[in-house]
Hints:
Elements: E1 9-16, E2 21-28, H1 46-58, H2 72-105, H3 112-154, H4 169-190, H5 196-228, H6 232-271, H7 288-293, H8 301-324, H9 332-431, H10 465-497, H11 499-506, H12 509-521
Antiparallel strand pairs: 1-2
Helix pairs in contact: 1-9, 2-9, 2-10, 3-9, 3-10, 3-12, 4-5, 4-8, 5-6, 5-8, 6-8, 9-10, 10-11
Protein name: Transmembrane protein
Region (Disordered): 419-452
Keywords: Membrane, Transmembrane, Transmembrane helix
Amino acid sequence: MADSKRPDLNFEVGYDLKSQKATFSIGISNIFERVGKRQFGFSASRWWTKRKGKVDAKHLLPLTSATRPDGREEEIHTQRDQQLTKVSSAVTQLTQDADDWITDHKPESLNADTLKSDIRAALNGALAPYRRRFQDTREEFVDSLAQYQEFRNENNLRRHAEVPLFFLKPFVILLALLLFETLVNSAIFAGISAQGLIGGWITAVMISTVNILLGLVFGILIIRYARIMEGHYKYALMAAGGLLVIAATFFNLYVAHFREVAEEAIIASQSGEIALTRAMAPRFNDAWPHFLQNPFNLGTVLGVALFVIGLCVFGWATYEGYRGFTDPFPGFGKVGKRFFIMRILRVGLEDAARQAGFDVLDRARERIDTSSRLHSHFKNQVSIAVSFAQRLSKAAATAESRINNHAWSLLSAYRSSNRRQRIKMHRKATRKPIANLPDPGDPPNYFDEDPRSNGQWVSVVPDADSLAARAGSALDGIDRNIETLDIARKYISDLRASIDEQLRQALDEEDMTLNRQAAEIIDIKPSKVKTIKNEAA
């Protein structure tokens, strides 16, 4: 607050909502510098004061036996009191403003246990929905776990199911195989196809599709079931498998012979032996005589390449059919996939709960950091208030001293003039007694007293001790709060470091047991599994 009548005295307090910082500024620049200047009133010039002393002496004022000031001296005392009242009011108002500011902005006392309890409650509140979701999926997870264990025990399986959780993976691999063989075969057939590149590509797609289908049938229906069948069924599947391998071999041999027949026709057409048209171009079934003549006689490198590539694609498709889509053991993949999906779902819930706990702790730490910064800022402002109290007390004492000294200088001038006038009038009256001149007599006794030293002028300016005490109390409270915030910050760090422990305390013992059993079933070391258990508080 700034007083327009005292522009040298400025004291401003406030709060910036945008930056969330308190503002506290003081400006004291010789606030009583004008005191004692020569202006009408208390600071009147000395000649006017001396003149008034002479006039009072002629009017025999004050009396010789007077003990209290009278005349002009009384006016000096009155004006001195008025000036000190202004100083006292200013100091009182500023002190009260500073005190009110400290009181309004003083933070409430924080309790470490309360902060810890609030942080714990917020963490438990964030984890509560995940506990319900764990309970909702528990029954199905228990059922899938029981079926998985039962299937393994019934079939004497000592391993866990091999299930591609990404169900599109085998399809992607098979499409890649199809694309690879198609590109290679189309390049090989392009030179001998009457339709050119398109004809070669169509032929290559047909051949690649047949090889992949044969491999899938061999892997899915024959190898997988032949391993678990016994007796005649097993021998029948083995015989069917052998026939399927022979069929795949001879199919790829036939493809190679077809390529050679088509190439011979193209060469004969180029040499003029025959007129090869699109209608007369060799068809796929025209290679039978050449194939039956000697199936294993391949006369070109490209024919051998077709045969090798076809068998490789057949073998890879067989492997994907055997192990790519599901577990090699029939039925185990379906049971294992259900169990693994439920396992992954619950592990995902645990990770989500862990992340939710981290988010809550991060928000709490951010709020505590913000509170700590505000406390530190307010501490600096209170320190400024303490400095202000010291400067205000010193300035008030200086102002009072100046006012007293100036008043005493006027009193001294008045008394000196009055004393000289009395001596002069006394001499005249003594020399001419018959003239009956007025004789003021000796100066009053109080003329020899200095009100500054005899205790007459008691200091009326209030000190700033109460403000300093309030500021000190605020500083102590701020320091205690900062220590409490540090404790809460360390508590958050401990919770973050032991988030798994918090999850164990927030979730059920049954969830811990299920996760441990699942980890043991799929042969994962317990040290590498994030289990969820509930420890006694």
